[in-house]
Amino acid sequence: MTSSLDEILSFNESFVKFKQYEPYITSKFPDKKIVILTCMDARLVELLPKAMNMRNGDVKIVKSAGAQVSHPFGAIMRSLLVAVYELQADEIYVIGHHDCGMSAIDPEKMIEHMIERGVNEDIINIVKYSGVDLIDWLHGFGDVSTSVLKSVEIIRKHPLMPKSTPVHGLVMDPSTGKLDLLTDGNAFLSSQNTEE
């Protein structure tokens, strides 16, 4: 198996030596006070920030497969809470995208791929028998909009999230960068305030 490690380290040595990092110097606090939860899809690495007019230092970006919050007390939710409480983020954007790989995940096939790549079937059976439903855990989603709205709801209802935090839900076209708004966190907060 070939690795890109040597190439990366060689480039990095030159990058540091010639101070190519200088245009990117910023603080750990997001200038625009935003945290984005988005997908780890390679098409979004540069496209998403450019499509939102974000530069280095403007936002915190948390990535997961499918831009999902799969557990209210998992690492993704913890990262969002850290961004809000410790890193001065005031707004949360959950941004999924069309043509997401998570929408087509077949858990049975993924388990087959694990075995092909050397994970012992006995280990998989132990995980299953220990109470982990691997099929459910590895399952993707059918509709990206529904998935984004589910993550937004988990964040909004989280007992540790400040109720005044706007949580927006959007879906991006990974070809053009076009954003479609599913739910406006500010409008949601306003509607909650009028109901009280």
TrEMBL record:
Its UniProt entry gives the catalysed reaction(s) as: hydrogencarbonate + H(+) = CO2 + H2O
Q: Which GO terms describe its molecular function?
A: carbonate dehydratase activity; zinc ion binding
So where does Zn(2+) get bound? Answer: 39, 41, 97, 100
InterPro entries per the record?
Carbonic_anhydrase, Carbonic_anhydrase_sf
Instruction: Name the Enzyme Commission number(s) assigned to this protein.
Output: 4.2.1.1
The protein's matches in Pfam families, at most eight in alphabetical order, are given as: Pro_CA (PF00484)
Report whether Metal-binding shows up as a keyword of the record.
yes
Record key words, sorted = Metal-binding, Zinc
Cofactor stoichiometry and binding? Answer: Binds 1 zinc ion per subunit.
Q: Which cofactor does it need?
A: Zn(2+)
**Which SUPFAM superfamilies does the UniProt record give?**
beta-carbonic anhydrase, cab
This protein's source sits in the domain of life called Bacteria
Q: Does the keyword Zinc apply?
A: yes
The family assignment reads:
Belongs to the beta-class carbonic anhydrase family.
**Name of the featured protein:** carbonic anhydrase
Origin organism of this chain? Ureibacillus endophyticus
